[in-house]
């Protein structure tokens, strides 16, 4: 008798270096070379890095300056999000040939519940192999996959044999798999938490499993119960076919830092207009407007205001953003501005999933 539910078959599909791989696919001259999507050797932040660049320590979220330092011959490419979305739609079309229980996490990864599937195939492992093969031949990109009984283990497993590989963790293998797993590989354990766990003598799953729930809650608050359960393979979150967005945002990083509030207003007007288009396209409105400001020293600040009514039009978005901008003086020149809208009218929707049991 296992402490976790064994009735489900969950696949986590994760595209390999997605943005960079799309650029290499579309431009043969970039193939086999270190590529960074986003950023530059002067400014900006890397959105994605090819595996050739990762060998030098280039990762997403580091500055372009640092990427150039790590890899002097790196090639910076401007992101093309419309193209990435187009490719993502092709990949999701393949997913839906197998199941409608698809929960996208981003453009390049998703959970699939194939407990019931359109092919009548009882093997989630074979389904994952077939999906990855189709993505390669029909789209031209490689993907990795993790397969197990819940989202947590599938997510962790998809990283084991990257790139272009997959890992199945069967029910009888789960406890040993988690006990031997380095704590930094646990999904939901970030860099700061990893360091804290190291200080507490927790280096892999077996160390975490040896701690009581009271101990973990004392040191990690509400997350303690999560850590206590997942190391035992317990994670009951369902694959939600319709993932309800909690916020919609648009932001711009500028080629040159801005110090004039007049220029900031001009930029905010463009951002508000783009945000309005996104909101109207998805028929969404919200009550809480948040202004995001990133300064030239990379420090970040957010200011929010909640309105008594739902809004989605540019004029009200801009008016509220301007009010937040003038709330206090800028402490430095600005390199990024963004507007997000949350407290959305979509949050009342619910998704229900019904699942049956098959042999794994």
TrEMBL record:
CDD domains documented for this protein: PolY_Pol_IV_kappa
Entry annotated with the keyword ATP-binding: no
DNA-binding keyword on record: yes
Molecular function per GO: DNA-directed DNA polymerase activity
Reactions mediated catalytically: DNA(n) + a 2'-deoxyribonucleoside 5'-triphosphate = DNA(n+1) + diphosphate
Catalytic machinery residues: 109
Pfam name, any one: IMS_C
Cofactor binding, note field: Binds 2 magnesium ions per subunit.
Gene3D superfamilies found in the cross-reference section: 3.30.70.270, 3.40.1170.60, 5' to 3' exonuclease, C-terminal subdomain, DNA polymerase, Y-family, little finger domain
Cofactor(s) recorded in Swiss-Prot or TrEMBL: Mg(2+)
Record-listed Mg(2+) binding positions: 14, 108
Assembly and oligomerization: Monomer.
Family, per entry: Belongs to the DNA polymerase type-Y family.
Function of the protein: Poorly processive, error-prone DNA polymerase involved in untargeted mutagenesis. Copies undamaged DNA at stalled replication forks, which arise in vivo from mismatched or misaligned primer ends. These misaligned primers can be extended by PolIV. Exhibits no 3'-5' exonuclease (proofreading) activity. May be involved in translesional synthesis, in conjunction with the beta clamp from PolIII.
Listed HAMAP family: DNApol_IV
Protein name: DNA polymerase IV
Gene giving rise to this polypeptide: dinB
């Amino acid at each position: 008798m296992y402490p976790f539910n064994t009735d489900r078959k969950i696949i986590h599909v994760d595209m390999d270096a997605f943005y960079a791989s799309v650029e290499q696919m579309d431009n043969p001259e970039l193939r086999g070379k270190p590529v960074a999507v986003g950023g530059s050797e002067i400014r900006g932040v890397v959105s994605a890095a090819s595996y050739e660049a990762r060998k030098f320590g280039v990762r997403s979220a580091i500055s372009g300056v640092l990427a150039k330092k790590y890899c002097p011959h790196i090639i910076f490419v401007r992101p093309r999000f419309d193209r990435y979305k187009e490719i993502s739609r092709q990949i999701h079309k393949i997913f839906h040939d197998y199941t409608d229980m698809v929960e996208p996490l981003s453009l390049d990864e998703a959970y699939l519940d194939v407990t019931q599937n359109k092919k009548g195939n009882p093997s989630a492992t074979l389904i994952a192999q077939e999906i990855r093969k189709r993505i390669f031949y029909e789209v031209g990109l490689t993907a990795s996959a993790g397969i197990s009984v819940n989202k947590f283990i599938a997510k962790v497993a998809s990283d084991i044999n990257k790139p272009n590989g997959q890992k199945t963790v069967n029910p009888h293998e789960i406890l040993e798999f988690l006990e031997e797993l380095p704590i930094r590989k646990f999904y939901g354990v970030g860099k700061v938490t990893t360091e804290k766990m190291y200080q507490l003598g927790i280096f892999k799953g077996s160390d975490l499993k040896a701690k009581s729930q009271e101990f973990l809650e004392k040191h990690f608050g509400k997350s303690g119960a999560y850590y206590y359960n997942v190391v035992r393979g317990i994670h009951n979150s369902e694959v939600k076919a319709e993932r309800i967005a909690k916020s919609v945002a648009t932001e711009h990083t500028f080629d040159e830092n801005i110090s004039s509030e007049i220029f900031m207003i001009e930029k905010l007007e463009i951002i508000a207009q783009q945000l309005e288009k996104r909101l109207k396209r998805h028929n969404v409105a919200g009550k809480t407007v948040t202004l995001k400001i990133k300064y030239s020293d990379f420090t970040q600040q957010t200011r929010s205001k909640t309105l008594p009514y739902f809004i989605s039009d540019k004029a009200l978005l801009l008016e509220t953003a301007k009010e937040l901008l003038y709330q206090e003086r800028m402490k430095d020149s600005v390199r990024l501005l963004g507007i997000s809208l949350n407290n959305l009218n979509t949050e009342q929707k619910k998704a229900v999933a019904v699942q049956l049991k098959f042999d794994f």
